[in-house]
Amino acid sequence: MKYLFTFAASLSSSKLLAAASTLRDMLIYSSFALASADMAPPAESSPESSPESSPESSPEYSAEYSAEYSAEYSADNDIADKDRELAMKCPAMRSRLSPWLAPLMYALGEKVVLPFYFSKIEVTGQENIPTSGPVVLAPTHQSRWDPLLVGLVGKRAGRYLRFMVTADECMGLQGWFIKRLGGFPVHVRHPSIKSLRHGVQLLQAREMLVIYPEGNIYRDRINPLKPGLARIALRAECTQANLGVKVVPISLEYSEQCPQWRGSVKIRIGTPLTVADYATGASKVQSKRLTADLQAELMALAGQ
What we know:
Glycerol-3-phosphate (1)-acyltransferase, 8 strands, 13% strand, alpha/beta, disordered N terminus, globular
């Protein structure tokens, strides 16, 4: 550690900031949830087949079954039977967590990058993060630093994180890391049924899923939330008895609108919303109600 600080002192501040930003980008969407040494990461699953080999790559296929997926939320039929029917038509998506990369990324993020860049990280409401069971973390999105900070919160609860990220972010070097750290892509404007189903499957496997409900970075204020988070949470809850999905609102507030070197950040974690409370009645109506309640919680946490 002494040699690390000696080396850092020999570099200019601009070079250090550039190095921190590079490491940040490499660590974005990491799981950061290795709570203890005896918590071994799961084995890697086989890589996903290329889009060209999947029938879902056909525009007609995607339009047909995305429409079918959306329509069923307003239908009062047997959701479980519908899911089985769609599963036969749509090939499954896979995501994985690398057993060697996750510990490395966690160590760099927690011990080097975050304390190097921020002077203070204040967390309130950590007790609101469930230590087991299916959870959707729903943070505000203001900066590319957000995933690392949300990962820290998950780590303190001893949980692995699975990130739903935009398809563009799964490209290049960053995409290489994301795909090996439990992340999986979704097209925000035209989400495929495969991505939505994978989010449901992760919750049914009692994972902790991270979805940014605003759908993009907004620095001025909390924007209207997208409906996808509520739909995925309700889908998982309604298709597996007594699952107990929780949605946890999280507000991230930086000392400057655009995070600056040696600035500070406050992480406020709200009371979890119990998805089972929204699981009766018309699915489309309950999805809108869950989205509205989540928006109200996020705005209250942010003081808006």
